[in-house]
Amino acid sequence: MYNFYSFSGLLNLTTLSLKRNKNITAEGMSALSGLVNLLNLDLERCTSIYGGLVHLRCLSKLQALNLNCCNCITDADMEPLSELTNLKELQLSSTKVTDHGVVFLKGLHKLALLNMELCCVTAACLDSLSGPYSLLYVFLL
């Protein structure tokens, strides 16, 4: 088992990939909250992080977040992401996010890429994202 709290001292870290790590839990994600210079975070296929995205709220510099295939992620997990106003890329493919969760992304005006392939979303969710956005790519199929 990994000691995720050892990350907390890496204050200058800008990129972190924990891809396919089944050992990281929502509680363990609290160790990521101190990585204030993080720009890129890859949590693809981390299937035990439900409720842990709340620990990412203070990562104000975060530009890219990959949550693809985190099938534990739901609409409720989207609320903390609303504070990540520097996000340019958000990968949510194969999560349990629906149109209701997309509403929380409304204030992410720098978002250029949103991948929600294989999610239960409809074209109606695009109404939540209309406005002064930088969105260049949206994947919904």
TrEMBL record:
It holds the Pfam family LRR_6. InterPro entries: Leu-rich_rpt, Leu-rich_rpt_Cys-con_subtyp, LRR_dom_sf, Zyg-11_UBL_adapter. SMART domains: LRR_CC. Gene3D superfamilies: Ribonuclease Inhibitor (3.80.10.10). Transmembrane segments: none annotated. PANTHER family: PTHR12904, REGULATORY SUBUNIT. This is Leucine-rich repeat domain superfamily. It comes from Helianthus annuus.
